[in-house]
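SEVERITY: medium
COMPONENT: batch folding queue
REPORTER: lab tech (J.R.)

DESCRIPTION
The queue accepted two submissions in a row. Attaching both inputs and their returned structure tokens so the on-call engineer can compare them side by side.

ATTACHMENT 1
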Amino acid sequence: MTREALLAFLRRSKLAIEATVAADGAPQAAVVGFAVSDALELVFDTVEATRKFRNLRADPRIALVIGWDEGITAQIEGIADLPTGAELERIRECYFVAYPDGRDRLAWPGITHVRVRPTWIRYSDFTQQPPRIVELGPEQLA
């Protein structure tokens, strides 16, 4: 699997299931719209006042599942952060390419953008015979 093929798959997809863990250890999941940068950073917007956001700040490990309805999926584990300054502007521009209406949401109170840097990706293509499964760890993602 090439980096270009992985980027193309991620960019064809618009939604991900975001999974985090609550402070009490309970799993939480939500569907988020995301964009992906050339550096394989995944970006989504959220509101800081939510419990899910506070849990993500307390424990920045995150999992995303992409493409669950197509027979092709990417399961991504990574670390979330909140860039500032020029880095924030760079990832916002990446997000706005995929979601032009995201600019309108900047007026919402507490809206912010979360960046996820993958530490592990498992890409599965069950439309092929035999199914193709590729795992990419930190050394391939650097």
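ATTACHMENT 2
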Amino acid sequence: MFHRSIVDKLKIWSEKSYRKPLILRGARQVGKTSAVLLLADSFDQFIHLNLDKDDDRKLFSAHTEVRYLFDAICLHAKIKPVKGSTLLFIDEIQNSPAAVQMLRYFYEEISWLHVIAAGSLLESLTVKGISFPVGRVEFLPVRPCSFSEFLVAFDDSQSNQLIQQVPFPEYGHDHLLKQFLLYTLTGGMPEIIEIYRHEQSVALLNPVYEGLIATYLDDVEKYARNSTMAQAIRHTIRHAFDAASSRITFQGFGNSNYKSREMSEAFITLEKAYLLQLVYPTTYVEKPVKPNYRRSPKLQLVDTGLVNYASGVQADLLNFKDIHQSFRGRIAEHITGQELLALSDSVLFTLNYWTREKKDATAEVDFIWSHREKIIPIEVKSGKAGKLRSLHQFIDRAPHALAVRIYSGKFNIEKATTLAGKEFTLLNLPFYLINKLPEYLSFAEK
């Protein structure tokens, strides 16, 4: 059952006493609707409106008072408008500004009603000057399936149970690493996982990848403010996958003639659409972390499986036993970023990497992670601890002595020393344990 963790979070929301309408944020085909349908099984009544349909959308334009609107919705759904265990799901809500504004009144006047809204193109509302009612809705990001959910989809309960053990038992390493390599190859899009689960063929996945990218390209006009911007966004989508986990510059991105401002707007629009995230650097080693938006960001795409397909590196992952070998190590970094994003329930959460303050400095740590009062450096690299020079430079400047290396080796914690002589604890975490990072950081501090 995919997105089990999202369904669990939806149940927690549904049981809250002071519950606001919930907005699900995420790209197309990440499983937003499927998760809600699974939640609906626990309700006495379920109403599903899809505002791509004229009849469903017209309900909101025909009624301006929420009590009459709800009566009309119930009549439309052929259920009795009674107070009880009822879930109302408004899908593709971006198609109706009136529906967006009505969320406020569902909260204020029919607070017993459980209301969830979703849409793949919610950023188009900002182009129209429409925003969600401030303080009267809450948000939950829905991203591609994590590795843990991937195991659930393949009914590999034994592996999932092993992952829950801290520390991880060494005998399970080879099996879990093999499973994670498969997850890295296919990615976490629910439809992809479903097809591979039944067919066990990567070749049969490629038309689905192609269809997803084509859909993203087709959607561009819906949230571009004009035809020129639509062309810039479409160019960005076509060339972004090849730049995954690379530092990019907006000016001339993808060997184009586009100016920095045009490309910046295109990337920001796609970021709002949850198709990518711009990962900006910081020079800070302690809180509060302040990203430097004047420096080049790295590019994190929605899903590693799509990156593999669009960049033509699927064969590499099939032939290599170590993820680090594929795409000059960029796939290893990208899947790590994807797993780190899956750890957060906040729509405001962003990834960052670390660089030294000097502009010409080459020191760069792949990611940083906030853990209690600490900012933890994370390197995605194979090799010995002594070769992690950028990580050493971070630790030399940090007010603590804890670092993480993500790699294909077995879990262990070692005592290491920076090149400058500072002793620190290095948490060596295999890829398949990234989604347990917070627990292992606490374990390493004991």
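NOTES FROM REPORTER
Residues 203-445 form one domain.
No errors were logged for either attachment.
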